[in-house]
Amino acid sequence: MNPQLTQELLFKMLFKNLTLLKIIMTFSFVASYAEANKLIFDVSNSQITLGDKKKQSDFTIYGFSDSKRTLVLKITGPRQKVILQKKKKILGMWTWGKTGEFSYPSLNHYYTNNKSNQIDFEIKKDLYDNIKLIGKDDDNLKKDLIEKKMSIELFKIKNNSFNVINKDVPSLFKIPIKLPENSPAGDYFVSMSLMDSGDKFETRKVKLTVKKLGVSSFIFSFAHKFSFIYGVFSAIIAIALGVFASVVFRKR
Q1: What are the mean pLDDT values of the chain's consecutive 10-residue runs (252 residues total)?
Q2: Residues 202, 29: contact at Cβ < 8 Å?
Q3: Per-residue model confidence as pLDDT tens digits over 52-109
């Protein structure tokens, strides 16, 4: 039997949960590229729920590529903003003034099928480029942010993380993904690239929806969707607690 035909049949069996239309669109997309640059992937589950403390992977990436170039899987979380403030004195009173604003994906995970200095450089460059600093640009602030996020695994680079499904068909692979428990809820995007010497070919992006269990998830979602109302309620609660505390201590 033709080896190429065998690989295609195995790949179709691997993705038997996909609709026929999806498979046809995927192969049509790949056919427009050179024979040695085939790259197809999909996810096992697009609805992820965090917070149940399960040990197994949250989802798995299955893919096929006959390219000899480096493969890089990228997962990005919903974008978030962080306001930078500096304490300053105005009319004899100390206050906080806005000095800038960070905008960046809340999660940046990269998985590669090998390791090289060139690929590490390209990934780190992509990571830096995804962090936008509104105001005075400062590479040191970006570096501090990246180091902090890496310490809590919201930013991560994991090399040699592709698992061959069958040794006889090394073009087929899978990547088990376990998201950290502190990952925020929201829309995530998964893409995969062929990278080599700065040249890059990126596949389509697959959207994932991540949900979290518990009250903290509800508060987080409410605060981001209705930030003004959340701010008003937070101020009211803070004032009420302050008044309550003053009354209690006054009676004592």
Answers
A1: 50 48 45 60 90 76 88 93 69 63 91 88 89 75 88 93 84 92 92 76 85 65 58 68 67 57
A2: no
A3: 666 688 999 999 988 888 899 999 999 988 777 666 666 666 666 566 788 899 999 9
Nearest to 155 by CA among 135, 185, 119, 128: 128
Q: What SS3 string covers the chain?
A: CCHHHHHHHHHHHHCCCCCHHHHHHHHHHHHCCCHHHCEEEEECCCEEEECCCCCCCCEEEEEEECCCCEEEEEEECCEEEEEEEEEEEECCEEEEEEEEEEEEECCEEEEECCCCHHHHHHHHHHHHHCCEEEECCCHHHHHHHHHHHHHCCCEEEECCCCEEEECCEEEEEEEEECCCCCCCCEEEEEEEEEEECCEEEECCCEEEEEEECCHHHHHHHHHHHCHHHHHHHHHHHHHHHHHHHHHHHHHC
Asked if residue 119 lies in contact with residue 195, where contact means CB atoms within 8 angstroms, the answer is: yes
> Domain residue spans in the chain?
3-213, 216-252
Among candidates 69, 77, 64, 76, which has minimal Cα distance to 174? 64
End-to-end CA distance of the chain: 90
